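Q: What structure does this chain adopt?
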Amino acid sequence: MTRQTLLDVLAIGPHPDDVEICCGGLLAKSSAQGYQIGVVDLARGELSTQGTLEQRAIETQRASAILGIGHRENLGLPDGEIGVGPTALGNSPSSQLGVTIAALRRLRPKLLLLPYWEARHPDHVAASELLTRAVFHAGLAKFLPELGEPYVPLQVLYYQMRVTFQPSFITDISDVVERKMEAVRAYGSQLRRSTSDGATGTLLSSDLSLQSMVARAQFYGAMIGVSAAEPFLMRNAVSIDDPIAHFSTLGARAVHIF
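A:
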């Protein structure tokens, strides 16, 4: 196996629809700019209150086409048990950690988008921990070498889920926010509040759900003087060699608008 980067951007989500909701704008924008975009979903969502696995698979294909995602796969980790169990993080190719490392070493993205480590959903918290561990171990030559050559991304970004954070930076998605919302709406089984099968509805299927997503994009857009944006967090500092040139390219947007 060669050290070839196959993807420019890879977003990994705990379940189908998570990346569309949380960083779909950046994915759509990057795809429009000509970058190779990929998504890996950890679990299929078999415990979801609404919809079937067959419905969600079709919806995922539709959303991927809308955003311009060239590669998408699901690792099939157990829904509700991400990172759970004595062997989940074990030193085995078949462990959840091993399966995740194999995907990273195979796809080798330059930029890696992961879920923020603070979240309401236990799977989201566990997914962030599993993925952070997988990124570290994927770079170790002696850890499961049979899974491929070591891999280290150029940068890891954490996207915001339900719990907010102070962003490291904010990306303008004004030109693609409608495409992002179209991709979110592709998950009709998750957005419709139906009790015909005994379901009680979810936060995502509430009447205010889509409105709150738009409002959040507008809120972060106001921070940088645009109509819609998405926030991202880095654990590390970044280097700006020429601050004057960097901020000059931003023009009026360099001013704190909100």
